[in-house]
Amino acid sequence: MKRLKWLIWLLVGLTLSGILITASLRWSRQNVADLSRWRNSKLSPVIMIPGSSATENRFDRLVAKLNAGNKNPHSLLKVRVTNDDRLHFSGRIRQGDNEPIIVVGFENNHDGYGNIQQQARRFNVAFKALATQYSFNNFKAIGHSNGGLIYTAFLETYYPKYARRITLKRLMTIGSPYNFNEKSIHHKTQMLSDFIRRRTRLPANLTVYSVAGTQTYNSDGLVPLGSVMAGKYVYQEQVKHYTTISVSGDDAQHSDLPQNAQIIDLINRYMLDRPQSRQILPNTPYLNGKTE
User: Are 198 and 231 in contact, with CB atoms under 8 Å apart?
Assistant: First the structure.
């Protein structure tokens, strides 16, 4: 009787061991396959975040202009993150397109520091899902207005856990009010103070372009130039390259900046891995941009 019980327990143990070994082998094979897919990935998306009150459709004109005359146009995938953290997709990444454009918008797209923090957290939800689905190992980032602030909060709070696997190659912020409506750095908002306090978490090898619109000498019609330039107190001496650039002329008003011809040219030249040849625009102020 005792021998029978011992044999039963032995069979049970061998069966469980076999199940565990099989599961472990399957997990190992899947893990190796996923790692190989990630390492060999040629995908390098451009991920864009719009500003307050704007949706995932905000960059449609920008993308259309980038794709105009392009034999290999960038495909466009849009993600909308609702307040319950669910992701809603539209568009698609075309097979063979290694540099698609992905736009992440939010149901809560309101202004204010508290909302920006929530949007950064929800962007992290979307980013994690995108990285898992598409296995890219690098990307480029563009944020218009508050989109640049959301990216800054994301980089300081959430990105460090991805940094070893996913490289952010370049970041461009467009008309981003790092100090909200304050014109002077002597009056720091809580948001700017927090950005400065956490800036050591920013990726050291990052290249950043901070673009300001100058419809007037000191504003793009909405955001003070001093607030955009306050970004240097966050990024300067923390990232590899930090460049401030100003644009003027047509479409230099804050809401028009994403489709400004000079900014389209800047994105094409400095943000894309496979830029299309473009005619150099004459007398463009951004050619005098300063590198810090």
Answer: no
Q: Are 44 and 130 in contact (CB under 8 A)?
A: no
Q: What is the dihedral of CA 47, 83, 59, 133, to 10 degrees?
A: 30
pLDDT recorded at residue 57: 97
225/238 Cα distance (integer angstroms): 22
Report the C-alpha gap between 180 and 239 in whole angstroms.
22
User: Across the 292 residues of the chain, what is the mean pLDDT of every consecutive 10-residue run?
Assistant: 63 67 58 47 95 96 94 96 98 96 98 98 98 97 98 98 97 97 93 98 98 82 92 97 90 87 95 62 37 38
**Which residues lie below 8 Å from residue 87, measured CB to CB, with a gap of 6+?**
79, 80, 81, 125, 126, 129
Q: What is the pLDDT of residue 40?
A: 59
How much is the pLDDT for 38? Answer: 42
Q: How far is CA 17 from the centre of its chain?
A: 45
Residue 161 to residue 37: CA distance in whole angstroms: 20
Note whether 119 and 107 are within 8 A (CB): no
Phi, psi of 123 (to 5 degrees): -65, -35
Q: What is the pLDDT of residue 6?
A: 64
